[in-house]
Amino acid sequence: MSLLDQPRLRDLLSRLHAQAKATDAKTQVEERALEAASAGSVDQQKLVEIWDRSYLTMAPEVGRLLYLLVRSRRPKVAVEFGTSFGISGIHIAAALHDNNFGRLITTELSAGKAASAAKNFEEAGLSKWVEIRQGDAFQTLAGVKDIDLLVLDGWKPMYYPMLKQLEPALSPGCLIFADDTIGMADEMQDYLSYVRDPANGYVSCGIPLDDGFELSIR
């Protein structure tokens, strides 16, 4: 049986998704209120405080698909840009566990989110498969090599520069998963244009599931 379907992990993910839905509904209201009261100049510190409580996670069906991709690709090294509270990482690590192979390096700017993710990985029984690197991803991922799977689920305007930094470290046939490509397409247009141009060495396809994601292979 897949680890995803075992009661402990199934119940944990169900609880985390419920928390994400409730919390993000509140933080979205807070963000809109802050923007409405800003008179064109949003208080960035308050905005960061709101984002630090926002899960902004992928839908359960997208997480399950990500699990299937990891099971199929069997990455030795999987890298995730944007840990958040660890929900997508749990799906990746569950697949690594079921493959009995590989490791996940995941990076998160927010110290609070990184700490919460660490607790969630521990509760899931998956800590041994995961290395959390807290800090600026352009620094924490420097030096990573032989990436077989790359998940981009952090700050959208950073997708393209992050890919360009990591490109020399991508192994042949590396699978790249970029989330939120429908609702936030404008913020990652440089990324989408790049991976969709065959001259750059990628085969890419947009998948209209939930908020959309781009699946590319190099």
Quaternary state of this entry equals: single chain
Q: Indicate how many domains the architecture comprises.
A: 2
Q: State which percent range the strand residues make up.
A: 15-25%
At the fourth level of CATH, the homologous superfamily of the largest domain is Vaccinia Virus protein VP39
How far the N terminus sits from the C terminus, by CA atoms, comes to: 31 Å
Specify the overall morphology.
globular
Mean pLDDT, to the nearest integer, reads 96
The name of the CATH topology of the largest domain is Rossmann fold
Per DSSP, the total helix count is: 8
Give the CATH level 1 class of the largest domain: Alpha Beta
The CATH architecture designation of the largest domain is: 3-Layer(aba) Sandwich
Explain briefly what this protein structure is.
With 218 residues, this protein is an alpha/beta fold. Helix content is 46%, strand content 19%.
Detailed description of the structure:
The chain is α/β, with parallel strands linked by helices. Helix 1 (7-36) runs antiparallel to helix 2 (44-53), helix 3 (60-73) runs parallel beside helix 4 (87-99) and helix 7 (159-166) packs across helix 8. The protein is globular. The relative contact order is 0.12. It folds into 2 domains: 3-53; 60-217, Vaccinia Virus protein VP39 (Rossmann fold), CATH 3.40.50.150. It contains 8 helices and 7 strands; from the N terminus they run αααβαβαβαβαβαββ. The mean pLDDT is 96. It has a 7-stranded mixed beta sheet with strand order 3-2-1-4-5-7-6, with helices on both faces. The longest helix has 30 residues, at 7-36. The protein starts with 6 loop residues before the first helix and ends with a strand.
